[in-house]
Amino acid sequence: MKHSPLQPLRYFVTDISCTAAQGFDPTRPFDPAVTVGLSVNATVTRQTPPEGFLGHSWSVEMSIVQTLKEGQNFPYMFKVALVGFFACRDGFATPADEEPFVRVNGSSMLYGAAREVIRSLTSRGPWGELFIPGISFYDNKAKTQTEPAEPSQPV
Fold it and tell me: pLDDT: is 21 or 81 the higher one?
């Protein structure tokens, strides 16, 4: 087993809400268009590490908001915001490669935690637990040598 060069240190929920949809009809299937209304935003920020820390510290702030249109058949309306703190092993990647690595992997780890928070919260609701879809934070657009480097942007 090989440990990842990026390790989660801790995370916490900063905002959460969940409402059981009164108009939900459990005899009808969920509306597949509901994933269109799922908005996920993640912001990655390099942090100042503690003195003597062997590596780089990062934070990922994430919000997941689900919005339904009138008449969509879905059991819950929810939103959740989390902040996660991560350590990236020193010397693992060049400074230019480390931020995208943290953006993809740190965001993926935090999203997995958010999925579990939503599942746990809805498991106590009238319509049972809800698993939100898995998503990818990987952007496969290859940078050419003539393209300027872009500043860090929310995912």
Answer: 81
